[in-house]
Amino acid sequence: xxxxxxxxxxxxxxxxxxxxxxxxxxxxxxxxxxxxxxxxxxxxxxxxxxxxxxxxxxxxxxxxxxxxxxxxxxxxxxxxxxxxxxxxxxxxxxxxxxxxxxxxxxxxxxxxxxxxxxxxxxxxxxxxxxxxxxxxxxxxxxxxxxxxxxxxxxxxxxxxxxxxxxxxxxxxxxxxxxxxxxxxxxxxxxxxxxxxxxxxxxxxxxxxxxxxxxxxxxxxxxxxxxxxxxxxxxxxxxxxxxxxxxxxxxxxxxxxxxxxxxxxxxxxxxxxxxxxxxxxxxxxxxxxxxxxxxxxxxxxxxxxxxxxxxxxxxxxxxxxxxxxxxxxxxxxxxxxxxxxxxxxxxxxxxxxxxxxxxxxxxxxxxxxxxxxxxxxxxxxxxxxxxxxxxxxxxxxxxxxxxxxxxxxxxxxxxxxxxxxxxxxxxxxxxxxxxxxxxxxxxxxxxxxxxxxxxxxxxxxxxxxxxxxxxxxxxxxxxxxxxxxxxxx
Length: 488
Prior knowledge:
Elements: H1 26-34, E1 42-43, H2 54-63, H3 65-78, H4 83-88, H5 92-107, H6 114-127, H7 131-143, H8 159-162, H9 164-173, H10 180-187, H11 196-218, E2 231-232, H12 243-247, H13 253-262, H14 268-285, H15 290-306, H16 319-322, H17 333-338, E3 345-346, H18 352-363, H19 367-380, E4 385-386, E5 389-390, H20 395-408, E6 411-412, H21 419-424, H22 427-438, H23 445-450, H24 457-487
């Protein structure tokens, strides 16, 4: 770090310069004297995530050759390595699968034209007020030749695109309400009709970006430096640091954060591991009846409806985001406040493995395979660690997280004992899960920090990958079941 020197010029009859107000290193002072008239932006915040210290994220790419190769490929393909990819870099195997799938959905041969794909991404991200993803795809939409008029609002897009608004709304917030009637309205709209293949492509894109919005908010992803809210031209003031140090994130905040995490009270991990051990012993000793298993599911489903999402009041989406979707008051929480019943969706009757996978692959070749690999990667990913403990079987915990998310959407696995969820997931974790999955725009840093306080950031990112993929699969199951019912 360069040492800062005090400003030496006086204000007497001289125009003000940055050195009159801020400490500045000798290198920057030389550049300043050249007075080239170029305004150089600096990022707002430190690093790709507001929740995770930048040093931890950047360290991954430095020590992992595979990660470096993945980033190089991503840059060659997209011309950028975005902040989402940087954070996902904690888990290179998953990131590789994610980027391969997203590349196929957006850029390879498929039923939808390129500008349609990016506009659907904008619609889906806007549903959760995710300006980060909206901004990325506004730029991509224009780069592939999209009509700028569409960006003035959904009502300026073609009628065919506008008709996706209802599907977008229901899938994002209450997918269990989707019926074959909604599918029929899209497939039999005369000159504005969608083909089955186009609709499958659109559904996959909608669910992909709904769930990616959850990940974006859940990991506190920072805006890209070139996007609105991602940069400033105003130099900061902080004693002892040159402005270039602060712009590069060489401040003290990360060190303070690390020290705080190191002093957290211990015992949380050991308690969770002991519960996992006891549950495994109970499994071995006795198995609950089917009637009891069904009762436990219904109880957990009802309780999940009562879990609060966030303490703050409803936020009103900005015009920049809300113009891309309709009915902004529609959301997940509405039904829980009115006490509406969510019907049970039995996976034994319609599952991704036996039904959804083949339908997607038939109408949009190879995508079913790519999605399946991504689901499996997130679900099975493990390093056999929990915080500082090694050689730990985490399958029971991963299954509890995945099944709890599906339970919130009314999806039931007949062979799973939902009584395990309350033993493994505490209240603060449930609040985080529900907020991130159902109302991601309300996720806060305090909520992120309040669960699993002894765990590594990489483990919390893994949790967010599970939440993202479980949510996407839940939405897909409802959409694909409705399409199947229409077809039969």
